[in-house]
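User: I'm new to structure prediction. If I give you an amino acid sequence, what do you actually give back? Let's try with this one:
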Amino acid sequence: MAEQTSAGQSRQSAPAPEPHIRPVTIGGVVFAVCILSVVGAYHVIAGLAAIIDHNFYRSQQNYAYDFSISGWGWIQLISGIVIVAAAFNLFSGRTWARAVGIGVAVASMLETFFFTPYYPVWSVVLIALDVLVIWSLATYGHREAHKVYNAPL
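Assistant: Good question. You get back a string of structure tokens that encode the predicted 3D arrangement of the chain. For your 153 residues, that looks like this:
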């Protein structure tokens, strides 16, 4: 609201300060999109490998979570497509996209955990990348999304 000064000039109230944006948080979202895209592409490729060649993965002996290789391939293929779609929705800057990204990363971690006997080292790498994606999306705030993407507050 305008206020009168002694000289008769009006003075406007100061606008709200712009939110401070840390480059790490902006880079964190770009990092999350890139890593989720790579993880999703890996799931798609691993799923296609299991669907096309049933002997690509060998059944593990005495594994409590042993699924059929073909069923496992379809699960990985579908989840990979969902992960890649969630990754590209993160650029919208919306809160629901971040929540979906975190949820998809958690689901990817669980899926990779069950895949551990087939490729143990790569599974640990994927789980670590999913943890980093969750951290980067959880630290990215609503004000940063508004500043960068003009997302609604």
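You can read the tokens as a compact description of the fold. Here is one thing that stands out. The mean pLDDT is 78.
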